[in-house]
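Extended Data, panel c. Modelled sequence:
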Amino acid sequence: MKLHSQVIVTSQIDETIGVLEGLQTDERFVKIIEEDKAFSVEDAKLAIEKSYMASKEKTVIILGAKIFSPIVQNKLLKVIEEPPKNKEFILLTQSKSTILDTIKSRLPIIVLSGTEAIDDLGLDVTHLSLALVYDFIQTHKRTQAKEMGVVIERIVKQAIHSQSFDLDEKTLSLFSECRMALDVGSPPQFVLNALLLKLLARKKR
């Protein structure tokens, strides 16, 4: 691990920051961390402001969150593509699958061991919220029916095992109906949206 611009996929953001700090010599660190929620547009604006602050020494800007939405990534894209002098960006996230291709083409991706299972889905089903639902749906705007079927299957499995939802017979029927809807040509994003909103409505309070 080095202190240069990159995306690090990790389930242990705090621990990874500790490792990065252990590599620090004369670099200046700027950290904007949202470990328990998505990185916000306001966070992105702050990161961009920090990147343009004059500094003679190398500045490593560490941005960490469970998920970076497409809106946030697009906002960060220009400063990542053409960073100010002596500025490096390190993004820490739990899901490689939610990183846009435009970001992947500009930053190397490092996947730390033990994070692959989280990366498979890129959604914290247990702590499902409207914000997470919105971000996840935006991430899968172009996902095709076959791939969406796999995504939905993983969501269902996690929802059942989490015991965080009041899953009545009608809700359980919806799970199989989602797969059938994909098979007959329903728009994948519509099916995903219906499933997640139903789950959110059945979340235990």
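Strands lie at 6-9, 28-39, 59-68, 87-93, 109-111. This feature is highlighted in the accompanying rendering.
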